[in-house]
């Protein structure tokens, strides 16, 4: 059981920011990653569609012996996580990218928190609901920032175009006075420093990748599931392949990566 891989999925290759953080914190673990590039972006899909996709992908990861399944997509965590927990209750350990952030916020005393994310994540209200349960004294404001995903994928990072887009979003009046900003999308860690700079480094910018990896390590430790064999092997699957995904995958994973096509939808 210990040698089995950690299953991770996302709508595409953005979840590789989480896979990268896991490799930093748990270098001995094997990963099996699935990016549903045939259906991305999830941020524009209905909750029903995302639940359907997430169910099939979780089954794919379990069929490949995953010892845990990590939903490394905010849109899927926001819309499908409770459903997956119900469906796979007795079959695996499930982890999302929202609860670790909400738990972290619970240890702080922020008066006002901002959240940015896709249309699906923000319209679900999942972050607000979970934060108000754990930190009822914190005010929460959320904002959809849909241009950021294509902007990052097209490589507009730390330049005039990305600065103008990020500033246009983040100067929204509703975000005035925030003490923390949650990056509610797997792509946004790529522009974390740029966002911090826009706030003159006065706002704590929180992304889930490291927080989730620490929670994962704690769970594996508690359940005596850490891979101590000295052997690890990573596999990366996507449901539709183009060289474009290969190129941007390297940016998100911060290293060479071999993407294989797994056509689970036909
Ligand atoms: N991975 C998605 C998320 O974290 C962003 C990309 C998409 O919309 O599919 O919400």
Tally of DSSP β-strands: 10
Radius of gyration: 18 Å
How would you classify the helix and strand content by structural class?
alpha/beta
Return the domain count.
2
Question: Helical stretch count?
Answer: 11
**What small molecules accompany the polymer chains?**
D-glutamic acid
Helix % is 40-55%
| Uncertain regions spanning at least 5 consecutive residues | none
Could you tell me the mean pLDDT? 96
Percent strand: 15-25%
**Per CATH, which architecture of the largest domain?**
3-Layer(aba) Sandwich
Largest sheet: 6 strands, parallel
| Helix and strand run | EHEHEHEHEHHEHHEHEHEHE
Question: Would you give the CATH topology of the largest domain?
Answer: Rossmann fold
Give the CA-CA distance, first to last residue.
30 Å
Using the alpha-carbon principal axes, give the shape: globular
CATH class of the largest domain: Alpha Beta
Give the assembly state of these chains: single chain
Strands of the largest sheet, in order across it? 4-3-1-2-9-10
What does this structure look like?
This protein is an alpha/beta fold and 266 residues long. It folds into 2 domains: 6-96 and 210-261, Rossmann fold; 99-208, Rossmann fold (3-Layer(aba) Sandwich), CATH 3.40.50. Helices cover 43% and strands 17% of the residues. The chain is built from 11 helices and 10 strands. Strands 4-3-1-2-9-10 form a 6-stranded parallel sheet, sandwiched between helices. A 4-stranded parallel sheet has the order 6-5-7-8, sandwiched between helices. The protein is globular. 44% of the residues are buried. Bound molecules: D-glutamic acid. The site of D-glutamic acid has 17 residues, from helix 3.
């Amino acid at each position: 059981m210990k040698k089995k891989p950690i299953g991770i999925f996302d709508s595409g290759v953005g979840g590789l920011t989480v896979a990268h953080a896991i490799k930093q914190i748990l270098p001995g673990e094997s990963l099996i990653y699935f990016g549903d590039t045939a259906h991305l972006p999830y941020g524009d899909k209905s909750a029903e569609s995302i639940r359907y996709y997430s169910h099939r992908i979780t089954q794919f990861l379990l069929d490949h012996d995953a010892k845990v399944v990590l939903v490394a997509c905010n849109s899927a965590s926001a819309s499908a996580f409770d459903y997956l927990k119900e469906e796979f209750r007795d079959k695996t350990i499930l982890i999302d990218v929202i609860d670790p952030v909400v738990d972290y916020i619970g240890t702080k005393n922020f008066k006002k928190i901002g959240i940015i994310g896709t249309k699906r994540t923000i319209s679900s209200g999942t972050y607000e609901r979970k934060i108000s349960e754990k930190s009822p004294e914190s005010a929460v404001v959320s904002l959809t920032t849909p241009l950021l995903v294509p902007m990052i994928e097209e490589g507009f990072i730390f330049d005039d175009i990305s600065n103008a887009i990020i500033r246009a979003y983040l100067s929204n009046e509703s975000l005035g006075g925030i003490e923390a900003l949650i990056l509610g999308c797997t792509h946004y860690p790529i522009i974390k420093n740029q966002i911090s700079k826009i706030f003159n480094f006065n706002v704590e910018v929180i992304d889930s990748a490291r927080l989730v990896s620490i929670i994962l390590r704690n769970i594996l430790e508690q359940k005596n599931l850490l891979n101590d064999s000295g052997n690890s092997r990573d596999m990366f699957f996507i449901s539709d392949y183009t060289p474009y995904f290969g190129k941007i995958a390297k940016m998100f994973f911060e290293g060479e990566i071999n993407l294989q096509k797994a056509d689970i939808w036909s």
